[in-house]
Design a protein that fits this description.
The chain has two helices and six strands. The protein is α+β, with helices and mostly antiparallel strands.
């Protein structure tokens, strides 16, 4: 089981780093680990967040990893109050077979994550459309 740590990722310019600070470590199965980008937004509710949890299926042959990501857009009202006006959300779930050889699992995870990070998939998400 990995130890909780901050996440450093590239911003949209593909050059600048941004840190998602570790906030809450998972207490075990079905409880979320939580990271927040505390340099974005003016209040905790305005911070982008990533959560990750894990659990076994009924017979223990598969571990499921669930993740959600949120990125709020805020606006300032005429009275100076700040509110969330839009919320980008992403989520996913990975079924990790417990009988797969580690080398195959390593390759599957690398390719899955790299597919999500590919320029085409990023553009599809930005545009809101699958490629045609």
């Amino acid at each position: 089981m990995p130890d909780m740590a901050d996440l450093t990722v590239k911003k949209a310019d593909e050059t600048t780093n941004i840190v998602y600070t570790k906030k809450v470590a998972s207490a075990g199965d079905r409880t979320n680990a939580l990271w927040k980008s505390t340099t974005v937004g003016t209040a905790p509710a305005h911070n982008p967040t990533l959560t990750l949890s894990s659990r076994s299926n009924a017979d223990g042959k598969v571990r499921r990893i669930d993740h959600t990501y949120t990125y709020p857009q805020t606006a300032v009202a005429s009275d100076g109050s700040i509110s969330i006006v839009n919320l980008f959300q992403g989520s996913g779930s990975c079924a990790v077979p417990q009988g797969m050889p580690q080398t195959d699992l390593n390759e599957a995870v690398a390719q899955y994550c790299n597919c999500l990070a590919s320029a085409l998939i990023k553009q599809c998400i930005k545009d809101g459309y699958a490629p045609t």
